[in-house]
Amino acid sequence: MEQTSTVSADAGQRSVTSGRCNQWRSLTGFWLLGLCNNFAYVVMLSAAHDILKKQESENATASTTAMDFQGGNSSNSSRYDCNPVSTGAVLLADILPTLIIKLFAPFVIHKVPYGIRVLVCVTMAATSFLLVSFSSAVWMSILGVIFASISAGLGELSFLALTVFFTSNVLGGWSSGTGGAGVGGAFLYSGLTQAGLSPQITLLIMLVVPLVMLISYFFLLVPPPSLPQWRRMETGYAPVGSEERRQLIDGSEEEEQEKSTSENRTTGPLTFTEKLHVIKGLLKFVFPLALVYFAEYFINQGLMELLYFPNFFLSHAEQYRWYQTLYQVGVFVSRSSLCCVKIRKLWALSWLQVVNAVLLLFAVRYQFMPSVWLVFVIVIYEGLLGGAAYVNTFYFISEETEDRHREFAMAAASVGDSLGIAVAGLIAFPVHTYFCSL
Where is this region: Disordered (predicted)? Predict the structure, then answer.
């Protein structure tokens, strides 16, 4: 008897240990998936200035190409040392495909197994790095950025939806990983180019990232039994044989059929009408998220390039890269904060970000910022607000949504940040043109 009790205790201990191991594997897996999913997207934005500068240099006259960007841009007479094309062009190429995917995919993506989606994301990300690194024209660079956007958009809505099949802490892991992509991508790109590597070699090195995504999903995650992997399983339909026998025995086939239909309404796939109802309930989350991302990406791609301090030891291109890098540091810290603090007042974060955008807009126009160091502090703060808005939005959606609506809700709400970013990219064009004409 005592021996049986000991065996049971050992089995229970092994079960607990195995459960903890699986949780850590899933948490680590989601962190890496977040890192890999956003990596190409972040790198393309960090490289935006270099992508445009490379094409400008290749198409310039011999006298102009002799000027390296480190020494300034003589191709225009603007006091802002502008590129002819706004970095907002790269932002739009980086976000519009994502926006289109997030608008329409949640209604049909449930028919595609998660494994296949991951393979598509990996292929798109690898293609983006190759296209941009070997590009010989602007259109090739922009096409590469579009492939990165497709990968990031499909991955984000898929992995956010995937979190509902795991324990709640994987959402924090995913968000922290996406923040880590910002820091890792921006730091790695800035650091390697600063060290003397060309943007082409830097992008080729980053081909390892899609491979890590592949390994994380297929070999690191521990999928729960409820997770649809390679085969999409529709729930809510009882075994046919046993149900038919019970109906014949009870003699109440019509009653059982009505009961089965009722159960399907609560456990089966969501109808189109139900999805629209879920979207209506998500608007209180989507609008603040869209506003905070509009403000921060208007800063990042509409104003950062124009916040140039010519007497600083960093060149214009280097200042731009480090703006992007420090912004991503703020994002990483706040996206990793879910275990410490939760912020329910999402609108407050949005309006604080708008204040940042207005302040820097006037700083560009009237050039009253005393030092680049103050801009560095502001962009870190900007990243803290944006990251906090993201992670808290999806946390409260996950907490407040019904179980059967949660997978769709997490995927559908991801359109909020992309919508704000797309509008910011569109507005960045006329703002860039106006300031560069001064």
Answer: 248-268
- CA torsion sign for 139, 144, 147, 153 is negative
pTM, 2 dp = 0.78
| Mean pLDDT to the nearest integer, 422-430 | 87
Mean residue pLDDT across the chain: 80
Domains of the chain, first to last = 24-55+73-225+270-436 (1.20.1250.20)
Query: The tokens 């709400």 sit on which residue?
Result: 413
d(CA 26, CA 221): 5
340/57 Cα distance (integer angstroms): 48
Q: In whole angstroms, what is the distance from residue 303 CA to residue 425 CA?
A: 11
> Is pLDDT larger for residue 425 or for residue 16?
425
Q: Which residue has the higher pLDDT, 19 or 119?
A: 119
